[in-house]
Amino acid sequence: MQPFYNEQQTMLATTVREFAAEKLASRADEVDENEEFPIDQFRGLAELGITGMTVPEEFGGSGGEYRDFMVVLEEVGAACGSTSTVLITHVSLGSQTIYHGGSDEQRNRWLPSLASGEKIAAFALTEPGTGSDALALETSLRRDGDEYVLNGSKLFCTNGAVADVFSVFTNHNKEAAHRGVTAVVVEKGTPGFTINPQHGKMGMKGCATAELVFDNCRIPVANRLGKEGEGYKLALKILDSSRIMIAAQCLGLAKGALDAALSYSKQRITFGKPIATRQAIQFMLADMAVELDAARLLTYRAAALYDEGLPHSKESAMAKLYASEAAGRIASKALQIHGGVGYFKPSAVERIYRDQRVTEIYEGTSEIQRLVISRALIGDL
Ligand SMILES: Cc1cc2nc3c(=O)[nH]c(=O)nc-3n(C[C@H](O)[C@H](O)[C@H](O)COP(=O)(O)OP(=O)(O)OC[C@H]3O[C@@H](n4cnc5c(N)ncnc54)[C@H](O)[C@@H]3O)c2cc1C
Known about the structure:
Bound molecules: flavin-adenine dinucleotide
Structural class: alpha+beta
Number of strands: 10
Shape: globular
CATH class of the largest domain: Mainly Alpha
Order of helices and strands: HHHHHHEEEEEEEEHEEHHHH
Helix content: 40-55%
């Protein structure tokens, strides 16, 4: 347990760890192998109030700060990477976009059923032609009386194949650069809205990725989040905070890998002794533990800044960059410590090794995090 966690966070970690050991870890290989959306696991987290975390109680949520959600994600991520991605997308992308971008009427309309886990949220920014450059969005939004007409497509939408409520970023005016981006909510079943599941991911196979196609899809103007032109600011704000939760997920992946490596190194005998007695293995374990702790401290700092309402963009990029790349190094060492068995399924380290890779890509690649950090350091020239 971490000395800087308060009593509530320590209790939360214990509760979620027990739930994760019983309900998530035992199903993680199956979720991965079958590309199965972890719906029972999601419902179980909902019963614990976790799908409503960080959403205020007045909108049906269970409250809590990002530091609390960080603690949860580490435990969930250690047991099942896919479930942690599903949860982040539901809470810190989907629900938070509605909370921060929406009016009270919109919050009351969508958040209670998302917080309870009855409905599932998704966040759709990336398109076939653009991911890192959110100003190049092609999905168009045209006003027609009390409705908007939406045309275009989105790619790689996590939870997309099963979600009910989608926060979609569109371009209502390409000439206006960032002032042309507008966010709207599109509900599953809206005529003109088609969801095409995307298969074949390397890892995080349970998170129901989908392509979304909008073909003259009509949505009420009342589904717009904020004003026209406020979508870009909203997307950046949400990504700045949600990145901290990707870092927290990486702590979980890294912890899962380290725990597996520690346990295996004590059992595996070579040349008459457990491999944990060999200095080469001990030094790998030591480096893994140091990197995990450094990542946790960076993540906690970013979450604390967010919770205190302080600027956190650079620190959240630092946490995401470091935690995701550290999780990659840790997963690789854990696999090495397992030797040949680590390379075969079913093995937790083989799954973690694949699951980790996308954490260096989604919610801003490592290169984009380095851009955010270096711009904050250098300022305007
Ligand atoms: C499994 C998965 C789930 C995802 N879930 C979602 C989701 O739920 N919602 C959503 O909206 N998106 C989602 N994404 C999309 C993800 O956020 C994008 O893939 C990511 O932002 C990168 O965009 P891109 O793939 O278009 O790569 P590109 O932007 O085309 O980048 C290609 C390469 O060029 C580099 N690069 C780009 N611009 C620069 C620059 N200016 N300087 C230096 N290097 C640069 C990038 O770092 C990368 O290495 C998901 C992706 C995956 C793989």
